[in-house]
Design goal:
The complex is a heterodimer of chains A (about 110) and B (about 110).
Chain A lengths: L2 E3 L4 E5 L4 E3 L2 E3 L4 E8 L5 E7 L5 E3 L5 E5 L4 E6 L8 E9 L6 E2 L3 E6 L1
Parallel strand pairs in A: 2-12
Antiparallel strand pairs in A: 1-4, 3-9, 5-6, 5-10, 7-8, 8-9, 10-11, 10-12
Chain B lengths: L4 E3 L2 E4 L5 E6 L6 E8 L3 E9 L2 E4 L8 E7 L2 E6 L8 E8 L6 E2 L3 E5 L1
Parallel strand pairs in B: 2-11
Antiparallel strand pairs in B: 1-3, 3-8, 4-5, 4-9, 5-6, 7-8, 9-10, 9-11
The chains are: A mainly beta (about 110), B mainly beta (about 110).
Amino acid sequence: AQSVAQPEDQVNVAEGNPLTVKCTYSVSGNPYLFWYVQYPNRGLQFLLKYITGDNLVKGSYGFEAEFNKSQTSFHLKKPSALVSDSALYFCAVRDINDYKLSFGAGTTVTVRA
Amino acid sequence: DAGVIQSPRHEVTEMGQEVTLRCKPISGHDYLFWYRQTMMRGLELLIYFNNNVPIDDSGMPEDRFSAKMPNASFSTLKIQPSEPRDSAVYFCASSQQAYEQYFGPGTRLTVT
C-alpha cells in the first residue's frame, strides 16, 4: 500500500518570505514523487517530480523540492513567496511498479501582501 | 497542445438520470485516469486505462459507474442511475508512460 501525509491543512506566509509545504510518504518499493497545485475551479497543474537522480528537484514557478529517503519526505519549497502562489497544493506518490498515484489531502497556502 | 479537454464543465441533473462525462486526452499520451474530488474524501482514483484498455477499476464505487475508452482520443465516464452522493468534481488526466499526469479542468456534477 502507498500513502501520502500532508500534516498541515493550511500554511500562511507573508509575500517575500520563504514558503515550505510538508509531505511525507509511504510506499513498499522505490517512490516516484510529485507536487501539483490547484487554483479555485481549476484542474491540478503539475509542478515538479522526483523520479531518480539528484535529490533536489526544480520545477515550475520557482518551486523546488527535496527528496529525503531516510525521512521519507518530499517537502516543497520556494525561497520568496508571491501572492499569486496562494492555492491548494497536493503531494502525490506512486511505487515505480504501480501506475496508480496516491494524493495527500492537500495544503492550502495563503500568501499575504 | 490544447491540454486535456473535458465536457461538460458543469452538469446538473436529477436523481435517477443517466450522466455521461467526456474526456479528450493529450495527443500521444498512453495513460488516461478518471478521478473524483470531494471535500470529504479528497481526490480518489476511479479507473485508469493504458492504450485504451482498462487496467484498474478498483476505485469505481459501484456498478452504477462505468467507463470506456473506444479510441486513443476519447473516453467516457457514465453514471446510471445517478444519486445525490455522486455530486463531486470529476477530473480526467492523461500521461505518457505514467509519469506526470496532466489534468483537465474538471466537470462539476450536481445531482439533485
